[in-house]
Amino acid sequence: MLFLITCDYESFGVRGDTFQVVELIDENGTDYTFVVNQGKPYFSLQEVALDIASSLSVPPEEIELEEI
């Protein structure tokens, strides 16, 4: 299971482009952080889970997310 730690917007780079930063942690304490372009923000845990499943090439039902 993955736990959502943060899903905030941050500015990066010289131009100050805004991106959505998603930080996850698994039950073993391994931290995963990824950045999403502002053109495709996440609005729900389900959307995050679907993208993770797609990236890992696993069925979406294998990805469990819980907000902490």
Describe, in plain words, how this protein is organized in 3D.
- This protein has 68 residues and is α+β, with helices and mostly antiparallel strands.
- The protein has one domain (2-67).
- It has one helix spanning 45-56, and strands spanning 2-12, 17-26, 31-37, 65-67.
- Strand 1 (2-12) and strand 2 (17-26) form a beta hairpin.
- It starts with a strand and ends with a strand.
- The mean pLDDT is 78.
Calculate the terminal CA-CA distance, rounded to whole Å. Answer: 12 Å
Topology pattern, helix = H, strand = E: EEEHE
Helical content band = 10-25%
Structural class: alpha+beta
Count of spatially separate domains: 1
Biggest sheet details: 4 strands, mixed
Overall mean pLDDT score? 78
**Total number of β-strand segments?**
4
- What share of the residues does DSSP label as strand, in percent? over 45%
Parts with pLDDT < 50 across at least 5 consecutive residues: none
In order across it, which strands form the biggest sheet? 3-2-1-4
Radius of gyration: 12 Å
Question: DSSP helix count?
Answer: 1
Coarse morphology = globular
